[in-house]
Amino acid sequence: MGWQRDHAMLALRLNRLLTGGRAGDAGAAGTALIYRGPAEWSERAAAEPPAVPGALAEEAERLMEQAPSAYLAAHVRAVRAVARHLDGERLPLADYARECLGLEPRWVPEEVFERAHAELDAALPKAPGSVGDRLRAWQAARTLGDIDRLPALVDRAVAETRARTNAIVPLPSGEVVRCRLVEGVAFHGAGDYEGGLRSTIHINKAIPFNLADLLYLVSHEGHPGHIAESVLKEPRLGEWQRVRFMLSPSFVLSEGLGLLAQEVLFPGNEARDWLNAYVYPEVGLPPDDVDLAAVHHAKNVLWGVWGNATFLAAEGRGDAEVAAYLSRWSLYGDGEVAAVLGQLRPSPMSPYVFGYFHGWELLRRWVRGPEQVRRLLTEALLPADVTA
Question: I want to staple 33 with a disulfide (CB 3.0 to 4.6 A). Which of 15, 143, 346, 377 is the partner?
Fold first, then answer.
């Protein structure tokens, strides 16, 4: 218990330096720590004077030497790297990311994005304009008009994704997942496990919701993604799972599984067919014949653009150059680029974005069937464990 308490206090104190407040949950804005440990520890950290980054780095060094497992040592190493960063250390971004994430991100060649653009070109409805124009037109045609109808549709998607996940790994009975529409947040969707088999999927109502992404988002945030991982791991791993610093190796695998989740549950174009049968008729939309699997595969590939843009920002490139790169390769419109540009500016949390593309790429090579998915949902794994 002593090591666990000291680890939790270290993470809570560092989170306070990063965010200025208490730890939150997966649906909270401005948190670097998912914390469900004892309330008295978080209250103590909140009442203390702000910690000194150098002292936190020294404490992390001590806890690394005493860590009960390689898994926990890797997570304390991430905390140490961030504390050192706050103390003035400036490693090259790839080296800093390696200390935090347990893998070294690389620049993704633009040829990879060109192939994703070609995949979208073949998958989307034929129409005049660029691939980006056609993508936005298709998204607009699939947008839910009345956002207040979304929670009921999410409920339906949760039931389907949970049933399919249960066929891979048994889930506890009595689980409740609700949908909450939120405003004033930077994310599109976030899954939050609250304990007691109760969870919430938070969705930003300020962002138009493309119904073709319903299963893509729900499987990522819910089952077999973030909520399923918490529900299954917390009884097995205890405090290891209740105190989770977000800039860490485990989140590489969490975000990688999130991006892979729909493909795991709905191989081929089963997701499109399910939407055609159970969602589009409900809201008065005609059936869709796009190659939705290809669209979402390309979307996952284009997460690599975010990583490249983060490298550019770390090199000191100006907002205009980073925005132009995003616009060219991510196929975002001007408004979308403007909305995300601030998230890519250099910060102690910059490496987090690499977890999406590199985590997905890592797991897509490793996952060959249900056994690997079960391991991801029940075991304490590091990126190094899934490269063998």
Answer: 15
Are 30 and 95 in contact by the 8 Å Cβ rule? The answer is no
Q: Write out pLDDT tens, residues 299-343.
A: 999 999 999 999 999 999 999 999 999 999 999 988 889 888 888
Tokens 């799972």 — which residue? 241
pLDDT at 339: 84
Residue 95 lies in a domain: no
3-state secondary structure 174-233: CCEEEEEEECCCCCCEEEEEEECCEEEEEEECCCCCEHHHHHHHHHHHCCCCHHHHHHHH
Q: Which of 17, 75, 88, 4 is nearest to 48 (CA)?
A: 17
Domain boundary, last residue among 62, 90, 118: 90
Structure tokens at 264: 């795991």
Identify the domain containing residue 360 by its residue range.
110-386
Q: Higher pLDDT residue, 20 or 196?
A: 196
Say whether both 68 and 168 belong to one domain. Answer: no
Residue 44, token pair as written in the block: 């103590």
Residue bearing tokens 């997460």? 303
CA distance 26 to 321: 32
Task: State how many domains the chain has.
Answer: 2
Q: Of the candidates 245, 215, 204, which has an alpha carbon nearest to the alpha carbon of residue 355?
A: 245
Boundary-marking domain end, from 58, 90, 122: 90
Residue 52, Cβ density class (10 Å: 0-12 exposed, 13-18 middle, ≥19 buried):
middle
* Residue 247 and residue 164 in one domain: yes
Between CA 152 and CA 380 the distance in angstroms is: 34
> Of how many residues is the chain composed?
388
- pTM, to two decimals: 0.94
For 144-165, write each residue's pLDDT tens digit: 999 999 999 999 999 999 999 9
